[in-house]
Design a protein that fits this description.
Length: 267
């Protein structure tokens, strides 16, 4: 499938976020004095406002919002919690985020890390979404999973099921980002990040290779957008949408991946 559909108000995009809210997210992000969850919220807020701007049109002396993006956010630790309402339009999502103090209410207070339960919940939602009138012919939904620790459950089987879901334009895209880990890949920052092609580069940690295997290969359009917008200018063709987050700069660029789809969208 070609992944050719542009994001528009007639054929909007859907972003599902699965955010680790386990206790370790209160640890400081390496090289900073603030906890990981705060950095996640800061950079997610930037992306949400970007998506809102893409849905804004000037009419007369005012601005009209015609949603081109919808957002579904699942937080998890030892259990899951839904943030906001299911599949909120981007204007409602930004309003709730702003009114909540620019926060998803991440606090790192959910104990363990049960990724499988969160992925099952996401699968159930996405299965209905791709069959719905709103998204059936849109650019496929993108699922963005951000975690900083080893899961006590194996989400690989349900991740495979999620990647098999599809709209008329292609299969659901699954992005995994692992905060604070190290891999066999040698790079310094987003400017020279080449992306992960195989398990050997993603290892040696089995947690890294598991997330690599769960991640979708980047379609040509995503690869081109990430290069053209200078997010990951050295990304190799065939790289999976798996990222290890070593610094706040890397986190900022990784979160921009969720805004890269349909960046040259129709109006």
């Amino acid at each position: 499938m070609a992944y050719e559909q542009k994001i528009s108000r007639e054929k909007p995009g859907l972003i599902v976020m699965i955010l680790d809210d386990s206790g370790s997210m209160t640890d400081n992000l390496p090289g900073t004095s603030d906890p990981k969850y705060q950095w996640v919220e800061r950079y997610c807020g930037i992306i949400l406002n970007e998506l809102l701007n893409r849905s804004s049109e000037v009419k007369g002396n005012g601005v009209v919002i015609k949603p081109r993006y919808y957002l579904h956010v699942i937080k998890y630790g030892s259990q899951t919690r839904l943030w906001g309402q299911p599949g909120m339009d981007i204007q409602s999502a930004v309003e709730q985020f702003t009114n909540s103090g620019n926060s998803f209410d991440l606090r790192g207070q959910q104990g363990g890390t049960d990724a499988k339960t969160a992925f099952v919940e996401a699968h159930d939602y996405l299965k209905q979404a791709v069959a719905s009138e709103r998204f059936a012919n849109s650019f496929p939904p993108m699922l963005f999973h951000l975690t900083d620790g080893e899961s006590q459950s194996d989400a690989r089987p349900v991740a495979d099921q999620i990647r098999q879901l599809q709209t008329s334009d292609g299969n659901v895209l699954l992005v995994n980002a692992y905060i604070g880990t190290q891999t066999s890949l040698n790079y310094q920052d987003p400017d020279d990040f080449p992306g992960y092609i195989d398990e050997a580069e993603a290892g040696p940690s089995p947690d890294n290779t598991r997330l690599f295997d769960m991640s979708s290969p980047a379609p040509d359009c995503i690869e081109m957008n990430l290069k053209a917008e200078n997010i990951f200018p050295q990304l190799r063709s065939g790289a999976h949408l798996f990222f290890d987050v070593r610094t706040k700069e890397m986190l900022k660029h990784v979160i921009q991946v969720i805004g890269s789809m349909g960046s040259r969208m129709a109006r």
